[in-house]
Amino acid sequence: MARFFLILIERGLHFVLKKDALSSILVAPVSDHNPLLVETTAPTCHIGSRRFRFDNSWLEDPELGEVVSKSWAEGVRLDFLAKKDFTANRIVQWGRNKNILKWAQKDMIRKWLEEDIDSVDIREVRRLKEQWNQILAEEEIRIRQQAKLFWFRNGDKNTKYFHNNIKARRRQNRIVEITTSDGSISSDQHVIADTFQSYFQELFSVIPTRGLRQGDPISPYLFLIVAEGFVHQSLGTSTYLGLPSLVGRSKKQIFSFLKDRIWKRSNSWNNRFLSRAGREVLIKAVLQAIPAYCMNVFLLPLATCINWLAWDRMCVQKGDGGMGFRDLRCFNAALLGKQGWRILSDINSLLYNVLRAKYFPSGDFMSASLGSNYSYVWKSVHSSQQLLVRGTRWRVGDGRSIFVKNNPWLPSDSNFVPNDPMFIDDAIHVSDLFVPGELRWDLEKVLNIFSMDDVRSILAIPLPLNPRPDKLIWHFEKRGFYMVKTAYYCVLSMLGRHLRVGTSDLWKKVWALDVPPKVRDFIWRLFRGVLPTRDNLARRGVDVPLGCLFCDANESIDHLFFLVPWERASRLAVHAWKVWHTRNELVWNNKVLTPPAIHNVANTFYTDYLHCGLDKQCAPGPSLLSINAGSASSALDWLAYVDCATFSTSDLFGFGAVFEDAEGVFLIAISGYTKGRGSPAIAEALALRQCLMYARDAFLQAG
């Protein structure tokens, strides 16, 4: 049966069509609607011979193994290289014949699917589309093999968003037609180039013969007036390296350019092709990164930060019921804390010397006040003092730089300063708590001065073997360096915002569903009760009818959706999303789907998603060289296997070690314990240090 179709062209795209434009019907692998392709110019064929290469898609065919085995057996009288060439030629012949059959099968299936599918059995159409998708998967393997860059990861497919970005880049900076000087319209590229060249040659053919100042007595005053006007226009609006050079009283107006950039990026035309899950990634990866550079220096006013609905709940981690968005105000404080940390840790920097000369000439940064005649930069950096007080403490070295009573030096998560130690002067240093002449705690002195909680914290501090200076560290990072990530969570805990809003196991299961991201986002909105159903809209004051679109009952979340066991959760999530999608299509586009149709479409969508991106061969990457203990031990005299254990009922670390020689022969085993309290990483480090000390005393001295 002949098929007729009508192609409607957008008004702004009619100029790209040429006389040799072609149109054709494509095959839709999933949908029932076949797309129409319009090629603005006829394709040019470049036929030429090329070197044959092995096709990875042949690995999916079980006949390949038989061809290789049979070819290798037939060349039994040949040497190895000749057998290899003989087998390769057989594979080449088999592969070419296989590709010819595949191309013929593809053309035949395409012709069948291009016919009127309404008159064909739906099961036959489904079978043909499965074969079509299999052929496309093999072609995808072939294209991946030819790709010079790393291939996409599973699920990172081409979408309408990327398609429109490519189209936008192709459409811009392209002149299709031009009006020449005689009024005629031409689309010839040579005519367009000649017209441009002649126009600009005529435009810039005038050569100035004298300046404005020559022979004009009023010109000096004119220059002064214009210069003064430009100066007034530029004050307060110039930027340096993307930051405002002058900050006046209206902070909201000065930093409004950040809000404008964010809104311009979020409201661009191509973002409407993103799903809700795609917009979530856009907010986290792009929009929230726009003001990051400015937040390193300035404390942004609250009105500049973008506030979405219930933003404090949206900023909660995904495992606790939120969306994991970043709170810009808290993130701003964490970034400014990094500048304060630079002032504390690097007293030789230019920043430290400039700020100290003006704001704290006789003290330090932690005790400096804001002052009266301060700049906005100093006010911004000064706001990080409270954060640094919460997260900065001293790491004990020789103890000579730390005051016992006033400096933070205890490794406690609640308080770094001892709780009112008795009978101790303010000028006493931590080094006074050591045994004289040794880097070891004087246990009797510590027990007499501090409370039991502080005693446990003090004894948990690992002291160095050799004297070294005390050092300020960031408590919430293992290496002691300031990290914006840990500082951000510290700010949240200081504001009481690090709270759970739901059952953690439930939300982890929701975000672990094997469904498309947009379906997971829908299920999150469903469980949080934020879907705009009619009962939710009426509860928020919107005048809408309460009746369900499918029946006469009140439309609510409980009415539209139902619960099933968790082993069917992924399929349930897709069905629930499709029900909501069908409801919205009925509201806005008056499109109706019957329940069986909804069920079939949801099942097809879920099945296609499971087959999409599975069993894909990744692009070849650099191989890693695995080195076992045996190969490493050949260059050593002995090996030590160390382990440790922590005890919740006492402040002790237990450790043990087994020593072997280079050939794996047992030498000796040791075990012991040491006092202390901390994380398992600290316990492992202390155990390793004890074993190294034993090895130094035993093996090295014996050698």
Describe the protein in words:
It is built from 26 helices and 11 strands. It has 703 residues and is mainly α. Among the domains are: 119 residues, no CATH class; 109 residues, no CATH class; 97 residues, no CATH class; 74 residues, no CATH class. It has a 3-stranded antiparallel β-sheet with strand order 9-10-11, covered by helices on one side. A two-stranded antiparallel ribbon has the order 1-2. The protein has a two-stranded antiparallel ribbon with strand order 3-4. The longest helix is centred in the N-terminal third of the chain and has 35 residues. The radius of gyration is 37 Å and the shape is extended. About 6% of the residues have low confidence. InterPro entries: RVT-Znf (IPR026960). Pfam families: zf-RVT.
Main beta sheet strand tally, sense and closure: 3 strands, antiparallel
Oligomeric state of the chains?
A: single chain
Mean pLDDT: 74
Measure the end-to-end span.
95 Å
| Alpha plus pi helix count | 26
Summary keywords:
11 strands, 26 helices, mainly alpha, 3-stranded antiparallel beta sheet, extended, RVT-Znf, Reverse transcriptase zinc-binding domain-containing protein, 703 residues, two-stranded antiparallel sheet
